[in-house]
Amino acid sequence: MDDSIRTEIMKHRLVSVAEEMGARLRRAAFSPNIKERCDFSCAVFDASGHLVAQAAHIPVHLGAMPLSVQACLQALTFSPGDMAMVNDPYRGGTHLPDLTVVAPIFVERDTRQTLLGFVANRAHHADIGGISAGSMPLSQEIYQEGVIIPPVKLMIGGRRNEDVWRLFLANVRTPEERSGDLLAQMAANRIGIERMQGFTERFGVSALLADMKALLRYSERMTRHLIGLLPDGCYRFEEALDNDGFTEEPVVIRVAITIDGEQATVDFSGTDPQRVGSINAVYPVTLSAVAYVFRCVLGLDIPANSGCLQPISVVAPEGTLVNAKHPAAVAAGNVETSQRIVDVLLGALAQACPERIPAASQGTMNNLTIGGWDQRHDRPFTYYETIGGGMGAGPHVDGVSGRHSHMTNTLNTPVEALEYAYPFRISRYALREGSGGNGRRQGGEGVVRTYHFLQSADITVLSDRRVTRPYGLEGGQSGQSGRNGLMHKGMEKELPGKCSMAVEAGDELIIETPGGGGYGLPES
Fold first, then answer.
1. Other residues' Cβ atoms within 10 Å of the Cβ of residue 147
2. pLDDT tens by residue, 30-57
3. Hey, how many other C-beta atoms are within 10 angstroms of the C-beta on 410?
4. Dihedral over Cα of 136, 139, 142, 144: its sign
5. Could you give the CA distance from residue 119 to residue 103 in angstroms, rounded to a whole number?
6. Which of 16, 22, 1 is nearest to 409 (CA)?
7. 426 exposure class (CB count in 10 Å sphere: 0-12, 13-18, 19+)
8. How do the domains of the chain map onto residue ranges?
9. Dist CA 114 CA 79 (whole Å)
């Protein structure tokens, strides 16, 4: 068989493993956040922890996951039947609710057990402890955000590590739900191992190892070639997050992207120092954003794996917003700062290849956590969701309305599932008319989502683009900024973009998400 054909076939085979892992994880999960919103990602890695294949899941998970696998490799020795878990953002994680489960793939070779690679999945747990329900607090250090898990063995030789299991469940508000989600993650890894072992029985260990290396080399070659098609030069851009939740001072991200032949350097020097609030991004989050943007700009035909990053150097000075130092708070860095990094990168690359770059999308995930004691079922509850908004218009298309974009790729929780599971109701869910930026191509509309509380609860909102607006391109207008409000006893109070408070029965929380930027001068 021709090598190029074999590589293409193997790419789809390995991607199918990650896709099947995701299907099993979703079916088996307990929480609406994983079962309904699909807030998880699955991937296959080689024995060195390089990403070989991924499902079309969540960019901010997938770009960072290789660093989690490599952290587990450095800290642990694996044997058949082992599984590890980790969520530490300073060891390859993103933020604490994103819990990664890593499993080695061992195969028989020359009468010995050989490490073929790893399967891993990352899922956002609706609570991981910390100072507020949902574990997305207005925090000032990582210790306030939840239980920190370094690489530890969850399974040893096929048997569950009960000490670790009990310790984890003792530190979360909803242990039954967390147990169910974690078991689903383990089940997803098992099917991935079975499928990979089946490939070795069919094709042989040596052939499969060679195919995995060939995929990485192919992605690297294609990325180099496509970078080489961009004009050489240094392209700069900067934008700011609204604030860090504790002061009103904007927080600026600066980037200089240098294209030099088939190499690219992405330099964040000049970015503001890390802040007290939780908007700080760890290096894996920044790396994920860079990988995502270049992957989108260069084309969809390149297999998404670690080879894509080989021609790209990332300079992220330690102690800045894009490479925070321990013990900085990071809960919002994964969800909010990652989005602004994307906006900055696209703004820079719009100068190099304007025909490929859209205007800014909503630039926030509009994170909402709600928690308390469910009086209907006499048990604690925690709810987490991100809310879609407007996508930026492109050179040839209008922006899509009411969608998640860029670093997130989740669904929304269906209203029926949400109201069944939690003690509140959705009294309004609609597109936010007029929020998209005008232009030759129209920016997508944001949404309005109103939560009516049936009992008292604690809420936290982590959102951005409530002050700044998603930029337009080539003369297109900016999208509208978002807005948060609370209706209490018939009076509406405007809320800041990042806030935490108690609500009462009968209160209504109103989230209005930003629209996308327009593209091109409006036609007269």
1. 18
2. 999 999 999 999 999 999 999 999 988 8
3. 20
4. negative
5. 5
6. 22
7. middle
8. 3-218, 358-524
9. 10
**2 pLDDT above the threshold of 70:** no
**DSSP state, 337?**
I
Count of alpha carbons within 13 Å of 42, Cβ hemisphere only?
Answer: 28
Checking if the pLDDT of 409 tops 70, the result is yes
Say what the pLDDT of residue 1 is: 58
pLDDT-derived band at 112, boundaries 50, 70, 90: confident
Going by C-alpha positions, the residue among 475, 471, 469, 473 that lies closest to residue 522 is: 475
Tokens encoding 130: 């910390």
Chain centroid to Cα 99, Å, comes to 12
Asked if 348 and 448 count as a contact pair (C-beta separation under 8 A), the reply is: no
Q: Could you tell me if 300 and 15 are in contact, meaning their C-beta atoms sit under 8 angstroms apart?
A: no
**252, 259 Cβ separation under 8 angstroms:** no
Residues whose CB falls within 8 Å of the CB of residue 276, separated by 6 or more in sequence, listed in order = 140, 244, 246, 247, 329
Question: Given this model, what pLDDT does residue 250 score?
Answer: 98
State how far the Cα of 356 lies from the Cα of 344, in Å rounded to an integer: 15
- Residue 358 is classified by DSSP as P
- pLDDT score recorded for residue 523: 81
**Does the pTM of the predicted model rise above 0.85?**
yes
Q: Which of 445, 438, 465, 446 is nearest to 519 (CA)?
A: 438
Instruction: State residue 110's pLDDT score.
Output: 77
The average confidence (pLDDT) of the chain is: 96
d(CA 406, CA 337): 12
**Which of the 8 DSSP states describes residue 334?**
I
CA distances from 141 to 129, 131, 137, 331, 464 (A): 14, 11, 10, 10, 20
CA separation for the pair 421, 31 (Å, rounded) = 9
Q: By CB neighbour count within 10 A (0-12 exposed, 13-18 middle, 19+ buried), where does 430 fall? A: exposed
Structure tokens at 334: 């994964």
Q: For residues 477 and 471, give the distance between their C-alpha atoms in angstroms, rounded to a whole number.
A: 7
> Residues 436-493: pLDDT tens digits?
999 999 999 999 999 999 999 999 999 999 999 999 999 999 999 999 999 999 999 9
Q: Which residues contact 77 (CB under 8 A, 6 or more apart)?
A: none
DSSP state of 283: H
- For residues 362 and 513, the answer to whether their CB atoms sit within 8 Å is yes
DSSP string, 404-463: --TT----PPPHHHHHHHSSEEEEEEEEETT-SPPSSBPPPPEEEEEEEESS-EEEEEE-
